[in-house]
Amino acid sequence: MIGLPKSGKRTLLNQISCKFKHTPIYSGDLITALKYSKFNLLCYHNIDDNSIQNHVNPVFQKIEALIFVVDSSNLADLNNSHVLLQSQLNQLKGIPILLIISKYHKAQITIQEIVIQFELIKLRQPWFVRTVGSDVSEIEEGLDWLYDQIKHIKQ
Ligand SMILES: Nc1nc2c(ncn2[C@@H]2O[C@H](COP(=O)(O)OP(=O)(O)OP(=O)(O)O)[C@@H](O)[C@H]2O)c(=O)[nH]1
Ligand SMILES: [Mg+2]
Predict the structure, then answer these.
(1) What CATH number belongs to 2-154?
(2) pLDDT at residue number 5
(3) What's 85's DSSP letter?
(4) Distance in Å, CA 45 to ligand 2 centroid
(5) Burial of 152 (0-12, 13-18, 19+ CB in 10 A)
């Protein structure tokens, strides 16, 4: 999981951890690593232009999917957010992407507008968009989709 500072990653991690049984592996300023029954999750709290591949540790040998968090309440950061996603995608070709639109109850932009701005239609890999922070949090659907994608790739 990546996203700009203040995009809502830590809040999302807490939300996921409340819903699903997990084992903490590592928790620090830069990275949180958690083990769930179906998958391992690595959150990069402070990612820069470096590839996240450079930070993969022996527990997480390979990145199989990406959760990208974008704050829908902050229009000023949307372009930087897109640039961050692009820079990571250039280095992680072909992996499925779950785009989580956070703070959707305070959104300044619609899902459709984000999909267009982020040029998701042009992506070659599978992608899926869900919101959080709205009345109905869609994180479970998003994680189910991601897990199915990973299983499908492994077959
Ligand atoms: N109102 C509202 N605020 C939110 C929501 N999600 C996150 N925030 C706030 O947005 C700020 C940033 O959220 P964090 O969860 O710390 O996100 P982050 O900075 O991407 O996380 P890390 O970089 O991993 O520390 C915090 O002040 C949160 O309280 C939300 O759904 N609603
Ligand atoms: Mg933060």
Answers:
(1) 3.40.50.300
(2) 93
(3) H
(4) 7
(5) exposed
Going from the Cα of 29 to the center of ligand 2, the distance in angstroms, rounded, reads: 9
Ligand 1 residue neighbourhood (C-beta within 6 Å): 3, 5-11, 45, 102-103, 106, 133
* Alpha-carbon gap, residue 46 to 116, rounded angstroms: 26
**Residues for the chain: how many in total?**
155
Please give the pLDDT value at position 53: 60
- Each domain of the chain, given as residue ranges in start order, spans 2-154
Does residue 135 surpass a pLDDT of 80? no
pLDDT tens-digit readout, 105-118: 999 999 999 999 99
Considering every ligand atom shown, identify the ligand nearest to the alpha carbon of residue 4 and give its number: 1
Name the region of 7 (left: φ>0; alpha: ψ -120 to 50; beta: rest). Answer: alpha
The pLDDT of residue 154 is above 80 = no
Q: Which of residues 62 and 117 earns the better pLDDT score?
A: 117
Record the tokens describing residue 108, joined without a space: 């300044």
Full strand arrangement of the beta sheet holding 2-3:
2-3, 66-71, 97-102, 127-131
